[in-house]
Amino acid sequence: MTLAQEFKKTVAARVQRDPAFARALLDEAATLFLSGDPATARLILRDLVNATLGFERLAKATATPSKSLHRMLSPKGNPSMDNLAAIFDAIRKCLKVGIKAQTVTLRKVA
Hints:
Blueprint: H1 3-17, H2 19-34, H3 38-51, H4 55-62, H5 66-72, H6 81-95
Helix pairs in contact: 1-2, 1-3, 2-3, 2-6, 4-5
């Protein structure tokens, strides 16, 4: 088994036994999207989907074919805002959490 596959299995196992870890991944994915790193956010969402809903259940929840969802959450994926919102909503509901965005003021470093 490759290191990447082992890592994905480790993440999936941790998500399933540790709800706080799953919530932290969702939070990180949202933060990355809003901070301008959508490629990394999509990869985290993909791992989170695999560890929770699975792509078939996500397809039903979002009324989007699973193959399209796989492409959207690939490294070069480009989901629309509507699809992205539906993906976040389905994962949020699965984890039974809310999402709240906050802004922070960054200080200049001298």
